[in-house]
Amino acid sequence: MQYVNAVVAVALLVLALVNRDDPSGAAMFIFGAVLAAVALKHYLSSWVVRVMAFFAAGVLFCYFGQFFVLVPTLQPGWYWLWGSDTVHAAGLLLAGFAMIPVLSEYSCRMKATRECERGSREFAERKPLLAGFKGFEIGR
User: Fold this and answer.
1) What is the mean pLDDT of residues 123-140?
2) With left for phi above 0 and alpha for psi between -120 and 50, is residue 81 left, alpha or beta?
3) pTM greater than 0.85
4) Neighbours of 19 (CB within 10 A)
5) Alpha-carbon distance 90 to 79, whole Å?
6) Is residue 52 within 8 Å of residue 39, measured between CB atoms?
7) How far is it, in rounded angstroms, from Cα 59 to Cα 79?
8) Alpha helices (runs of H) in 19-113, residue ranges in sequence order
9) 11-53, pLDDT tens digit by residue?
10) pLDDT score at 73
């Protein structure tokens, strides 16, 4: 999931550069990139995770909301045309879907506890099931 969030952060920064003529739109893409980048940090306190999840959900709805406000002004077949409106609409749609894994990361962390995290680490380090039985050999 870390790779996905890193790619999302970079993609949102690229969208901010593409939309640099619209400062509020570029700031919104930068804010989403910051949220995705903070999700890369392994240890966050529970209140920081809650705040980040709240902001990630808000940014996700802003991206989709702006896209749906923009839709009535687009021409039929807008996705085949090349222009600033197409890039902006596609960027908003892409950014909205890209924020889903970021929000998922924060919501997953809100559900997890220290015991849960430790348990998943122990499970990953566990030996195979039959390795604990002494004298047991396959094919005997």
Assistant:
1) 55
2) beta
3) no
4) 21
5) 8
6) yes
7) 23
8) 23-38, 46-70, 84-111
9) 999 999 988 888 888 999 999 999 999 988 878 888 888 899 9
10) 84
Question: Judging by beta carbons within 10 Å of its beta carbon (0-12, 13-18, 19+), is residue 79 exposed, middle or buried?
Answer: exposed
Angle, to 10 degrees, between the axis of helix 84-111 and the axis of helix 2-18?
150
Helix (H) or strand (E) holding 69: helix 46-70
Work out the number of other CB atoms within 10 angstroms of the CB of residue 111: 7
Q: How many residues appear in the chain?
A: 140
For residue range 58-81, what is the model confidence (pLDDT) as tens digits?
999 999 999 999 888 877 877 777
- Phi and psi of 28, rounded to 5°? -65, -40
CB 99 within 8 A of CB 8: yes
**For the chain, what is the radius of gyration of the CA atoms?**
21
Distance CA 137, CA 25 (A): 64
User: Distance (Å, rounded) from C-alpha 79 to C-alpha 33?
Assistant: 24
